[in-house]
Design brief:
alpha+beta; three-stranded antiparallel beta sheet; 5 helices
Length: 166
């Protein structure tokens, strides 16, 4: 359910019959802080190349983000920069950014993923590890409210970050 996991789901959806996203948290419908994203309250921005990459996965993402409250800014005009010799002069530039909170960016990404009919998001589960056979990864083991589960998989992406037990 992270930005990385949602983008991975968007990248895989055209190539697989079913994509399963396993998320530890219960994902809010709105832009709300959640336990699994400690930096969610910090301001974030998307640079041109990141916006293009996400837009290729999810057409209309940038427009939806701006409609939801993201700000399209030209940093060279809309922000002040102090360098070693003083404040930089404001000038027009080709570089723009969309500013928003991480929770807003993830909320818009979740809405885009929910539009993908072959992607399922399972919330409230904790990945415990990979399952293997003959030295090959065959799936993922996880725990849910009703006990331990396993899902077979042709392809596994770990988007849990540096704290991943996998």
């Amino acid at each position: 359910g992270s930005a990385a996991g949602l983008c991975a789901a968007g990248a895989l959806a055209p190539h697989f019959d079913r994509v399963l996203v396993l998320e530890r948290d219960e994902l809010p419908d709105g832009a709300e802080h959640r336990r699994g994203v400690p930096q969610s309250k910090h301001p974030h921005f998307l640079l041109n190349s990141g916006r293009r990459a996400i837009g290729a996965l999810f057409p209309g993402f940038e427009d939806d983000l701006i409609a939801a409250g993201g700000l399209l800014l030209m940093p060279s005009m809309d922000a002040a920069y102090l360098d070693g010799v003083g404040w930089s002069a404001r000038k027009r530039s080709a570089m723009t950014m969309v500013y928003g909170s991480r929770i807003l960016i993830e909320r818009v990404l979740r809405a885009k993923v929910r539009e993908l009919t072959n992607v399922v998001v399972r919330e409230g589960v904790a990945v415990r590890g990979l399952t293997t056979a003959a030295g090959e990864i065959t799936g993922v083991g996880f725990s849910a409210a009703d006990g331990e589960e396993h899902v077979d998989a042709d392809f596994v992406v770990d988007a849990m970050g540096r704290g991943s037990p996998v």
